[in-house]
TrEMBL record:
Name of this protein: Chromosome 7 open reading frame, human C6orf29
Compositionally biased tracts (Polar residues): 1-12
Gene: C7H6orf29
Annotated region (Disordered), positions in chain: 1-22
Amino acid sequence: RTQTRPTGNQPSMTPPSEAPSGTAWVYGDPQQVLYPRNSSGAYCGIGENKDKPYLLYFNIFSCVLTTNIIAVAQNGLDCPTPQVCVSSCPAVSWTVATNQLSQTVGQVFYAANRSFCLPGVPGDMPVHQSLSQELCPSFLLPSSPALGRCFPWPNSTVPEVPEISNTSISQGISGLLDSLNA
């Protein structure tokens, strides 16, 4: 059976029993769970992002839920971190090195095919400025797509950032997934 994405206020034809989150269906907009949106509100995989079907969270650790799970489901798995639509999820760990902070976004991100910055970040912007304004991620973790989102591999580590551990990665992923099962 084919299914089209709802637009505007048009209801989705997916019955609640088939929606990934009953909570989002009953209390919120299931379209926000089914189809991820970036920080500017654009859907991934359609329109200007048709070649970018996956959502990358800059800092998955901010997704550890200390808030109401129903509220998170209503907001479509939204975390308090910038989110960008990407063509593929990161395959390897990477961290902005100290010596790269004075370089430009073009040198560090764009020249290395790391197109994980928010749209419109100028290539001549200093990396330190892009990080302080949360326009580009300070690190990437190897991830796999699920539900249109890049979820880090549970055994991922970032040696350059000691506070990032397997436990904190698992907690971030669990926080997002718990919101689906609310």
